[in-house]
Amino acid sequence: MRVLSFVVCCALPLPEIVLAQAVERSIRPEVRPNSEAVAPVKTAAVTSKIRPNARPVIIKKERAVTPAAILAATSDAGFKRWVSGFRSRAVSAGISPAVFERSFRGVQYLPKVIERDRNQSEFTKTIWEYLDSAASDTRIANGKAAMAEQMSKLEAIEAKYGVEKEVVTAVWGLESAYGEFRGETPIVSALATLSYDGRRGRFFESQLIAALKILQAGDTTPENMTGSWAGAMGHTQFIPTSYLDYAVDFTGDGRRDIWSDDPADALASTAAYLSRFGWVTGQPWGVEVKLPEGFDYGLASRKIKKAPSDWAALGVLGIDGTVVPNHGSGSILLPAGAKGVAFMVFKNFSVIERYNAADAYVIGVGHLSDRIRGSGPFKTEWPREDRALTFKERQQMQRLLSAAGFNTRGVDGKIGPNTVAAIRGFQKANGLIPDGYASLNLLNRLR
Length: 447
Ligand SMILES: [Ca+2]
What we know:
Elements: H1 16-22, H2 68-73, H3 77-92, H4 97-104, H5 111-118, H6 127-134, H7 137-149, H8 151-161, H9 165-176, E1 185-186, H10 187-197, H11 201-217, E2 226-227, H12 240-246, H13 264-276, E3 286-290, H14 308-313, E4 317-318, E5 331-333, E6 342-345, H15 347-353, H16 359-373, H17 391-403, H18 417-429, H19 440-446
Antiparallel strand pairs: 1-2, 3-4, 3-6, 5-6
Helix pairs in contact: 5-10, 6-16, 7-9, 7-16, 8-13, 9-13, 9-16, 10-11, 11-12, 15-16
The structure holds calcium ion.
Calcium ion is lined by residues 249, 251, 253, 255, 257, 265.
């Protein structure tokens, strides 16, 4: 989980464009090991409540003398000095010296963590590439099996928190491949490394203090406290501050143990988290819809919400041609523009966003949960002939749009609301479908 409070994020690489579009509300952007594959993935920076894109903060290295036990356990002199300075801040924050010594015994600076942190921005995936993995046949089959294995616990969790077992299972599937990849990185070392590094030092130091509080409370031991390189832990990958705020002890043994092989506490913590942010029992995250000829693409905006019957009056129907059931008001979402799958998304879409605000992630969780429940694949094809734009191409698109009189308010390579608005403006002015989608065709047209 992420920052402010929250949570989690994914075992799958998130497409950068999608991420960028979603940024305001996310929680946390790091990517975790994938179940089927392997390659670590990258993640784009996402801001969130929980995990704000922390601003780089340089923590002053202090000069206090570090306890010998700690010095002996670490190697880099600058890191050791940082540990020494941090120790006094941790103690001021309420961590007992004994817990600090115990937690930092053997702590190490981990260069690989910094490599991962620096390597986050070149990777780009389209939404269909992401979903091919997020809801692959393997992940669906494994999800059905994992849900069956944990059925009694998941049913009890659903009864208590009102979050459907398929949804909790889907989060579990994306975050750790159903517990298979919970992360082996020692959390104290990883967070100390990232805190010392300073790029997002303030954020990671707050996570480190939270991790020490968890250890001080006795929920787990430093040896068992492992997770992803960026500090997300357990079956559903909570960051320490989210853990402190939202994790629950479902088994009743007095520990909120999200690290153990038994996933009960972690799965209940995920349900508690979604419930806390307004999960509506029985409401879908979204449904695939069919747009009519001549649809006003200006209506495809998360800001525009209408009852399904009002959408039907505009010609927007379920993919089976009938009026979408009344799940509450919904918005039209076109993650790949006018040529891809169209969705009507409801409040629960926003609730999943509290875990991770990337559209791809939310659709991934939602679609995987539907597939685990037995639904079929999307009926509409994605524009698979398209490829994702690179960071430089996105910057070039922003420069060209601005030069053409459609101001993107910056050239940051992220397709956010201003860029979408500029694309729509350009499309309208040129007789194109104003879907706001940043495609390669559009870039070529601008060139
Ligand atoms: Ca427990």
